[in-house]
Amino acid sequence: HCTKQLISNNLDAASRHYQSAMLLASPGVSLVKLWASAFGGEIKSISAKYSGSQLLQKKYKEFEQAVRVQEIDGLRLVKKLAENMEEMFHKKSEAMKVSQTKLLYEYFNAVLINEIDEEGNSVELGGDFLLQPNDHFNNLSVNLSLSVVQVPTNMYNKDSAIVNGVYWSEALNKVFVDNFERDPSLIWQYFGSAKGFFRQYPGIKWRPDEHGVIAFDCRNRKWYIQAATSPKDVVILVDVSGSMKGLRLTIARQTVSSILDTLGDDDFFNVIAYNEELHYVEPCLNGTLVQADVTNKNHFRMNLDKLFAKGIGMLDVGLTEAFEVLYDFNQTGRGSACSQAIMLVTDGAVDTYDAVFAKYNWPDRKVRIFPYLIGRESAFADNLKWMACANKGYFTQISTLADVQENVMEYLHVLSRPKVIDQEHDTVWTEAYVDSTLEDGQGPILMTTVAMPVFSTKNETRNRGILLGVVGTDVPVSELLKTIPKYKLGIHGYAFAITNNGYILTHPDLRPLYEENKKRRKPNYSSVDLSEVEWEDKDDILRNAMVNRKTGTFSMEVKKTVDKGKRVLVLHNDYYYTDIKGTPFSLGVALSRGHGKYFFRGNVTVEEGKQISLILPPSIPSFSLSFFPFLSTYCNTDEHPEHRYLSQIDAIKLYLSGREPHLKCDKELIQEVLFDAVVTAPLEAYWTNLVLNKSENSDKGVEIAYLGTRTGLSRINLFVVPDQLTNQDFLTAEDKEGVFNADHFPLWYKRAAEQVPGTFVYSLPFNTGNDNKSVVLASTAIQLLDERESPIAAAVGIQMKLEFFQRKFWTASRQCAALDGKCSISCDDENINCYLIDNNGFILVAEDYSLTGMFFGEAEGAVMNKLLLMGSFKRVTLYDYQAICRIFSESSDSARTLLDFNLYSWWYSDLTAKAQRGGRTMLVPCDTEYPAFISERTIKETTGNIDCEGCIKSFVIQQIPSSNLFMVVVDNKCDCSAAGPITMEPIEIMYILFTESLKCERLKFQKDRRRPDSCHPFHPEENSMECGGALGLYPSLTTTLLCLMLALFPR
After folding, report:
1. Mean pLDDT for back-to-back runs of 10 residues, the chain (1051 residues)
2. In angstroms, what CA-CA distances link 17 with 20, 28, 820, 866?
3. What DSSP letter does each residue of 725-737 carry, written as one string?
4. How far apart, in whole angstroms, are the C-alpha atoms of residue 609 and residue 611?
5. Which one of 3, 472, 527, 685 is most buried, by most CB atoms within 10 A?
6. Is Flavoprotein a UniProt keyword of this protein (predicted)?
7. Rounded Cα gap, residues 670 and 620, in angstroms
8. Which residue(s) pair with 800 in the sheet?
9. 544-572: per-residue pLDDT in tens?
10. What does the DSSP assignment read for 564-624?
11. CB 768 within 8 A of CB 670
12. How many angstroms separate the first and last alpha carbons of the chain?
């Protein structure tokens, strides 16, 4: 009896497993197909009806004969854009040249203005200083008539050198004001003095930090250093003999760190410590130099803590090594190939080591020597002074930590002498950086600075090469984008620019800020290499060609992420590139193949244009021109003050009226936007009729209809009152990806363009908060022609309530073709799970509402894995080389929480260890790999069975017609949870360097770069006796020195 019962139980279990596997067999598959067809038909009908897509397609067809389709000539386009940028850059640099021609005395200290003392009187150097908010400067309170002067906290405001400099630079006020009137797009203009003060226009009040300190020193900024000096190769020698213990070693470390601050991306360096032996601060870099980028400098700074003082200082050994390293590295052709210097940080020298200099540096003296005497004692000062004077350098003594920065700066003015004597006003441009004082509605904006040196032109002091300072102005990177006609680049096309070092100046994928409010700058954000965003170019073909200022083309398949990195578009891009003359920058344009390589011109008569201009907003409230908030896409309203407060629509009206000849507008773009306005005008009446027909949309499931065209024209119609909108942010400035932007089309427009013509793409917005998941967007593209490579003329769509959308789905899934009305399966069955997912695998409808918006692989890992194996979906591996990782002190290096995707430098493991030792949380750059998923378009219907340890899980996936959606019906009786979920979480790429040699190779690796064109290493007329107090030598030593000079260094 027991045996029979056991057999019976086993048969029952087997029967249940079989029934489960057969649950979704042929009859079930047909039923799922019926549901999909019913839902697809109804939802497309709703989407087409309320969007007006068929009407709009018909209207563009009616104008087919009035348009001219053109293939974009990428090379011609990029050359034209480069010329436009060259003209813009030239205009900015000309303002700097004017600033130097007219070098009244008021001293408004930036910190003390509008400050009063205890008696109610203005403090000295302060005074009443009118400040008014100005929208051009982010509503900061500024004075457009006067500049202010900032002096670092560690300097005396009334030092005679500063007061004198403030006096003669006062004439710059008028120059700054005139520049701003000529070019109202200018932002900050300034003069950085060699004495340390900083004159800034417009005037603005500076506020110290919580400690009452303003540490800003203009001479330490990249724009100042680049303009003042030529590129340089530097070896820093640090004395670590026993006499350097204690405070002296601390001061020495700070001195080295300050020297590193003065080096930029065009410079190369190494740090060598010496006692009786040589100790490379980074042993991997024995005998070579590395580029002075931020990452390398930070790495060396951390290694300075490993220096300890002991033994005897053998300076001759250190000097010999430094000379040989400079010579050998120069022979490789990889360095700056310009100025060379040895920085000697020591507490004394027992000899002058003239034998070493005679062997390696005399008579040409191509390597300058800059000794820094550490400590108050000066017993060996004369020897160090002699070295500086005999080798065209400069001697300084550093007694305290407070002395470090001011004394380190002295060498810059020595290196600037040849440029000053040559009277070369070399214009320099910096890489992109963030100006946190100005914002554009999306956070702090990116800037580049144009700067050039200012020097004394007196003949009697010419051989002294006196640098007065550096004059500069900031240029928002957005100014570059104004020269780019986005409508000519296609939906996925974009322009980008890089520096001579391969760093990005502008690129739509550059992400310099992080965290929710996007206020914090990423480390090294200004040195993101092109290869880190165009990472599919594994061999750096595109990057290296642009770095070397070539003109040409390049093609490759790319994987572009959209929708906050959750979706991917696989495109084939053609790249066109050339250099921007007069700058260190190169420009590139990317055009996607297919519709992205074509644009069309529509003809509108002048009368038609004027008629359209008469009905521009506010006459029709549902019509708007969308554009980046401060970007003058259609008309340049910045050039003349009287146009500055015109909206783009008002500017177009004024332009079409012909009453304002000084208003500059893009004639071609305006003609095209008016053509789009003529073609799309009937949609207004169509939507209005739908609104007036009360029987339509009675449950108010459809809330918004919207239209966007290739020219940025947008029409929006509300089917409900604004307060009843489920998603209030859609198509507003808050919806960054949903509106036309300076460098991208809206997300719904991009996705619709890649959908099969005549079909709709449906999606949930991935905004923060669950409230925004309560709507569904449906969009479709309007093609101009029937051909496959037809340009996209426009896109239309609707926003509907998620609840309304889901109700349509569940209604369709309850249909049944059986005569008795009893279906073999139903979504209401407890043994069945029904899902609606999109082409990227995200759930739009599920019985468990909490799964809405989730990736399908997290809910049904085993099924998603089977779909990948069957080819219904494919995994696309993506990389992020700008990510930020959070490191927890209690975790190992590998246990990181990722905040934002992207990769970086392996040596940040040093930061990791430091953070852990300190017992704190830290954010560091990292590199990540993460997946995205995309459906295979040819798969219409698939069934599958999954063996899950004793049971079979079956499923059906059926494409929803005319959409990007799939219905997935899964048998849930078989538990496959052991398979685990498939997630989209990024994984940090851990660089495991098994050997020291691999670590060293990584450190030494340098990508291609191009040297700056200008180089001024030395000048035969230079007065090298200006060497830091050398003229105060004892008479006997002075005589010896002069004789030696006459013998060895004839002029």
Report:
1. 46 45 64 94 96 94 86 93 89 71 59 80 80 86 93 86 88 90 87 93 90 86 91 97 96 97 94 96 94 91 93 96 96 92 96 96 95 91 95 96 91 91 86 76 78 81 83 87 83 94 93 70 85 94 96 96 90 96 94 88 66 46 37 70 79 85 85 88 91 75 92 88 83 70 80 91 73 82 79 93 95 78 80 95 94 95 96 94 76 40 32 44 84 89 89 94 96 89 90 65 85 90 78 36 34 33
2. 5, 16, 27, 19
3. -S-TTTTSTT-TT
4. 5
5. 472
6. no
7. 19
8. 702, 776
9. 999 999 999 999 999 999 888 899 999 99
10. TTTEEEEEEEEEEEEE-TTSS-EEEEEEESGGGGEEEEE---HHHHHHHHHT-TTSSTTEE
11. no
12. 120
Distance between CA atoms of residues 190 and 200, nearest Å: 4
Question: Is the Cα torsion angle 856, 858, 861, 865 positive or negative in sign?
Answer: positive
Distance in angstroms (rounded) separating the CA atoms of residues 677 and 249? 72
Give, as one character, the DSSP assignment of residue 960: P
Neighbour-count burial for 833-864, b at 16+ CB within 10 Å, e otherwise: bbbbbbbbbbbbbbeeeebbbbbbbbbbbbbb
Q: Give Cα 998 to chain centroid, integer Å.
A: 30
- Give the separation between CA 512 and CA 496, rounded to whole angstroms: 15
List CB contacts of 752: < 8 A, sequence separation 6 or more: 760, 761, 779, 780, 781, 795, 797
Cα–Cα distance, 945 to 449 (Å, whole number): 62
The count of other CB atoms within 10 Å of the CB of residue 1040 is 14
Q: Give the up-direction half-sphere exposure of residue 741: CA atoms within 13 A in the CB hemisphere.
A: 25
Contact of 829 with 837, CB cutoff 8 Å: no
What is the number of other CB atoms lying within 10 angstroms of the CB of residue 1051? 8
User: Would you call 372 helix, strand, or coil by DSSP?
Assistant: strand
Q: How many CB atoms lie within 10 A of CB 341?
A: 27
Residue 471, both tokens: 């004059």
Distance CA 656, CA 665 (A): 10
Structure tokens at 110: 């930036």
Could you give the CA distance from residue 551 to residue 564 in angstroms, rounded to a whole number? 33
- How many C-beta neighbours within 10 Å does residue 115 have? 15
Alpha helices (H) in 341-431, listed in sequence order:
354-360, 381-390, 404-408, 410-415, 417-421
Cβ–Cβ under 8 Å, residues 900 and 994:
no
Q: Is the pTM of this model over 0.70?
A: yes
| DSSP 8-class letter at 691 | H
Residue written as token pair 């001061």 = 251
Q: Pick left, alpha or beta for residue 711 (phi over 0 → left; psi -120 to 50 → alpha; otherwise beta).
A: alpha
Tokens at 927, concatenated: 């590199």
123 phi/psi in degrees, rounded to 5: -70, 155
d(CA 378, CA 401): 17
pLDDT tens per residue, range 992-1028: 655 566 777 778 888 899 999 889 998 888 887 889 8
| pLDDT value of residue 25 | 59
214 CB neighbour count, 10 Å cutoff: 18
The answer to whether the CB of 855 falls within 8 A of the CB of 983 is yes
Nearest Cα neighbor of 193 from 404, 395, 412 is 412
Burial (CB count within 10 angstroms: exposed 0-12, middle 13-18, buried 19+), residue 520: middle
Q: What share of the chain is helix, strand, coil (3-state, %, to 5)?
A: 35, 25, 40
Task: Reply yes or no: is the peptide bond before residue 202 cis, omega within 30 of 0.
Answer: yes
How large is the C-alpha radius of gyration of the chain? 34
CA-based nearest residue to 932, from 590, 593, 591, 570: 570
